[in-house]
Amino acid sequence: GEPEGELWRAEEHDYSPDSENSARTNAALISLVRNEELGQLVQTMRDLERTWNNKFNYPYIFFNDVPFTEEFKRQTQALTKAKCHYGTVTFSNLQLVRPRANIFFSLSSELVPKEHWEVPSWISMDLFQESAQLLEEQNIQYASKISYHQMCRWNSGMFYKHPALEKYRYYWRIEPNVKFFCNVDYDVFRYMEDRNKTYGFTINLYDAPQTIPSLWPETKKFLAANPTFISENNMLEWITDDQARPDHTEAANGYSTCHFWSNFEIGDMDFFRGDKYEAYFQHLDRAGGFFYERWGDAPVHSLGIGLFADANNVHWFRDIGYNHIPYLNCPNSPKCSGCTPGKFFDGADFLAKEDCRPTYFKYVGTH
Ligand code: GDP
Ligand code: MN
After folding, report:
1. Of 327, 333, 338, nearest to 262 (Cα)?
2. What is the reported pTM?
3. Residue to probe by mutation, ligand 1, list 30, 31, 32, most atoms within 8 Å of CB
4. Is ipTM beyond 0.95?
5. What PANTHER family does this protein's entry cite (predicted)?
6. 140 within ligand 1 shell (Cβ under 6 A)
7. What class does CATH assign to 121-157+196-262+271-367?
């Protein structure tokens, strides 16, 4: 069922879309997405609006490395009573658009540095090509697709610096073609704020160690240089478990590869904007693994949270039924439909071993 204690419910507070004094907290739904994915994003938004946001009307902020098409803006805004904003991640002038009022305004004072998206100057393209080749030979998806590496880096250390998010504290990340199965009747952002939660997830799984061989060694270097950063109530045991899948931990040089799947995340940007995570990201960025390996934003966020946050402030949203191919979070509840309760994966049986929840529950528990 849903969490206990007092929860903010739509019918008890003012969540009307245009209210100046609404009960909404300082939060937005965000997505980095391509124009070509409009159809899949429509499916995501329909699910999220039906199960949750039509009651709360949190704004959407969409990001792209090229300008959004008028068709993209029209179709997305038509799915919600909430406001939609559209930003680019590379251009130096951010354009915010309000199609409803048909007012177009750009905040030229809020510049997006081109360094947010561009491949950093210290990355050698020759070395990138060479390493990508080796990863391709190990059948690592997207290994030689440079934009995929840029996307992972942007999600790791840039999204929360974007001017369009400056005034917001909490975000809920969504992706095209994900599914939401359960009606959720309380304000999940208020839940985060009221309980002082830093990070919320639905799916917890193993990563492909070949994409992150030096991520844990680099992390250990960072920790050795900053020994006071690690939180008292950290998740080191979950991070370094070598019992459940010793082959993985070995190939990832000491990291279990367990992580929160970041295509869904509800988080407090104050954490990512803080000194510790920022210094950690800078260290990783300089080390080059976003390009010479294929570090994902999911393991990077997870290590950051697992090391620098308090485990009590990380929440499993067990009540938010969710699917991103091929994994699921499917609660056994009358509020849910469209998925099989308890099922973790959709597809071949070998996917079952990618579930890291047992290890997470064992070492961290649910909060
Ligand atoms: P996967 O889930 O790891 O297979 O990666 P996805 O292809 O789903 O990419 C993750 C998210 O980033 C999705 O929301 C994509 O729409 C978005 N994305 C990835 N690459 C790009 C890009 O080059 N440009 C834009 N605008 N969005 C991207
Ligand atoms: Mn995806």
Report:
1. 327
2. 0.95
3. 32
4. yes
5. ALPHA-1,2 MANNOSYLTRANSFERASE KTR1 (PTHR31121), MANNOSYLTRANSFERASE KTR4-RELATED (PTHR31121:SF7)
6. no
7. alpha beta
